[in-house]
Design a protein that fits this description.
The protein starts with a strand and ends with a helix. By secondary structure, the chain is of the alpha/beta class. The chain is elongated and about 80 Å long. The mean pLDDT is 91. The strands form two sheets. A twelve-stranded mixed sheet has the order 8-1-10-19-18-17-16-15-14-11-12-13, with helices on both faces. A seven-stranded parallel sheet has the order 4-3-2-5-6-7-9. It has two domains: 246 residues, Rossmann fold (3-Layer(aba) Sandwich); 265 residues, 3-Layer(aba) Sandwich (UDP-N-acetylmuramoyl-L-alanine:D-glutamate ligase), CATH 3.40.1190.20. The chain binds ligand NAX, adenosine-5'-diphosphate (ADP) and potassium ion. The site of adenosine-5'-diphosphate has 17 residues, from helix 18.
Length: 547
């Protein structure tokens, strides 16, 4: 299962390896630099082609032709150290490389210092203040084309907001503003991005020039960091490649990782979805999904279709009398039960074969306020979405007092803010110091307070349980699925979770697997997707999974 590490976890794993004597920091840095160069050539094979030798410094960037040209921006820590390795390796291949250092050489940590010195043997390293692409005269050809920009200013050690003197988004923006056509690679993370939260730490009220901070490739080591997958991280990173630096082969770092295991955030992956051959429909559970009144039943019908397709044995829509006819005209495999007020609902719940409930989609606030307490009193696996969450905006504590561990809450950002206003305020505050409060922190805190699983939606859906277990369902990079942002897709997701709960999945596993399948369905259909299409992709997705 793919793990996402925080900066502190990565440090602990690396430090354990170094402390054991199984590897030195210098060796890890060399492997990191080599990994970056490898990743660059894998991403842009044309850059690996041989070219003429580098002209002698100074002023090699003035040359019109000849070697490939790179600018490497190094910072004051080990990220800068990785940058010096990359600069040296590129120079050894005949590249013309301009290296700039932000910070004083004698303050570099030992391994970075060693690589600074080795880098200087093959060419100069200039002070960062000299990096003034805004003053380079492109028009007169005084400065030649730059083929590659390497950002090695800050990695996982970024703790303070990036000052205006190193606003890379501005500087790199100049370099890439169409005058030159350089590929942009960030070592570990784009400098300025907080490794734990995926938020930029920038000390300014100004609009961040986001387009300019975006890289095409980020090369991380050992594991992706949480920040590669949440908030602004994916947009800034462009594409994230992970290179091994040999830590998985070392008993010391493996032991350190085992100790951290319960805290580590994971990327979602599907659980076993097969059905046993000897089963019958009741083995797969009976889900009940409550709808709203006449004219507002679409959301619940979407959820119900999702629950049925994902394999619940039976799915019943619980509708108020005024919507009975409307729903009856629309459904075939789904069943229908008349559910009016709290009393009638309680009577329906006497049927113990009903083992998963879904309340919220299109339900209406008033009906939700009446019926959610009845559902929760039944102590049945229950998904609360949409109106079932908003109904408790005025007194979230009232809801929390009734929730139990078989519940799943599925808020989007607005709904989360209604139930957890303090958590939303912390999450939405400008990030000044690292590690910044993240969507992972927010979801974990919400799950703990609610006492049940919380699935916080978005392209970076975060799912957490009260015990801290947490995963990210990332619709980014090769799983980018922007077509999922369409009305009703959240209703289908609620139905998917309900269906899996009916099938007997534990709440955390139901939420993770449903979120993962939701994105797979969107990818299976592709552009033009609307919510109705989502459940209909499940058969193809299951076939691909070998279910
Ligand atoms: N942890 C590991 O296992 C490995 C780490 N490596 C590299 O080392 C990096 C982490 O190195 P470090 O921990 O030295 O951290 P960084 O190199 O990311 O930055 C730390 C330095 O920047 C300063 N700093 C932080 N925020 C600042 C700000 N806003 N303005 C000015 N200065 C600021 C800190 O005081 C410190 O001097 C990783 O991202 C990775 O690139 C690699 O060499 C491979 C192995
Ligand atoms: N850009 C995006 N990429 C991938 N998934 C997205 C994106 N935006 C939204 N989603 C997903 O689409 C669904 C939207 O749900 P929600 O906000 O409840 O809206 P609705 O109820 O109208 O469907 C959620 O599952 C969310 O994770
Ligand atoms: K960097």
């Amino acid at each position: 299962m793919a793990e996402l590490l925080t900066a502190a976890q990565m440090r602990a794993i690396e430090q354990a390896a170094i402390a054991s004597g199984e590897v030195t920091g210098l060796e890890l840095m060399e492997r990191a630099g080599r990994g970056v160069v490898e990743a660059i050539f894998e991403e842009w094979p044309e850059l690996a082609e041989e070219r003429g030798p580098a002209p002698a410094p100074p002023g090699y960037l003035q040359q019109e032709e000849g070697a490939w040209r790179a600018v490497v921006l190094c910072g004051p820590g080990n990220n800068g150290g990785d940058g010096f390795v990359v600069a040296r390796l590129l120079r050894a291949r005949g590249w013309a490389v301009e290296v700039f250092l932000y910070g004083a050489p004698d303050k570099l940590p030992p391994d970075a210092r060693a690589n600074y010195e080795r880098c200087c043997e093959a060419g100069k390293v200039q002070a960062f203040a000299e990096f003034e692409p805004e003053n380079w005269n492109w028009q007169t050809g005084e400065v030649g084309e730059v083929d590659l920009i390497v950002d090695a200013v800050f990695g996982t050690g970024l703790v303070r907001p990036v000052g205006s003197e190193i606003w890379l988004h501005e500087k790199i923006g100049v370099l890439t503003s169409g005058v030159v056509n350089a590929r942009r690679v960030a070592i570990d993370l784009p400098s300025g991005l907080c490794a734990d939260s995926g938020k930029p730490l920038i000390d300014t009220q100004d609009e961040i020039g986001r387009g300019k901070l975006e890289f095409e490739l980020s090369v991380s080591f050992h594991r992706e960091k949480v920040g590669h997958r949440i908030s602004d991280g994916p947009a800034f990173c462009g594409k994230t490649v992970v290179k091994s630096i040999g830590l998985d082969d070392l008993p010391s770092s493996r032991a350190a990782a085992r100790e951290l295991a319960s805290e580590i955030v994971r990327l979602t992956q599907p659980r076993l979805l097969d059905k046993a051959a000897e089963s019958h429909k009741y083995t797969h559970g009976h889900a009940l999904i409550l709808s709203g009144g006449s004219g507002r039943t679409g959301a619940a019908r979407l959820a119900a279709r999702g629950a049925l397709r994902i394999g619940a044995g039976l799915v019943t829509l619980g509708v108020p009398p005024n919507a009975q006819q409307e729903v009856a005209c629309q459904i075939t495999a789904l069943m229908l039960a008349r559910i009016d007020g709290a009393e009638g609902f309680a009577a329906v719940l006497d049927d113990t074969r009903l083992n998963a409930l879904c309340l919220g989609p299109g339900m209406g606030i008033e009906r939700a306020r009446d019926l959610v307490p009845v559902a929760l009193a039944a102590r049945c696996a229950t998904v609360l979405d949409a109106d079932a969450l908003t109904a408790f905006a005025e007194d979230p504590a009232e809801l929390f007092a009734q929730l139990h561990e078989a519940c799943v809450l599925t808020p989007h950002g607005g709904e989360l803010a209604r139930l957890f206003p303090d958590i939303a305020a912390k999450l939405n505050a400008p990030a000044m110091t690292g590690p910044a409060y993240s969507k992972v922190d927010a979801t974990r805190e919400a799950a703990k307070r609610a006492g049940c699983v919380v699935l916080f939606k978005g392209a970076d859906t975060v799912i957490a349980a009260p015990d801290g277990c947490c995963s990210v369902n990332s619709a980014h990079y090769e799983r980018s699925a922007p077509w999922l942002a369409t009305a009703g897709s959240g209703d289908v997701l609620a139905g998917f979770i309900t269906g899996l709960l009916a099938r007997g999945f534990a709440p955390m596993q139901a939420a993770e697997t449903a979120a993962w399948l939701h994105v797979e369905c969107a990818l299976e259909f592709g552009p033009g997707l609307i919510a109705e299409d989502l459940p209909e992709q499940l058969p193809a997705v299951f076939r691909k999974l070998g279910v």
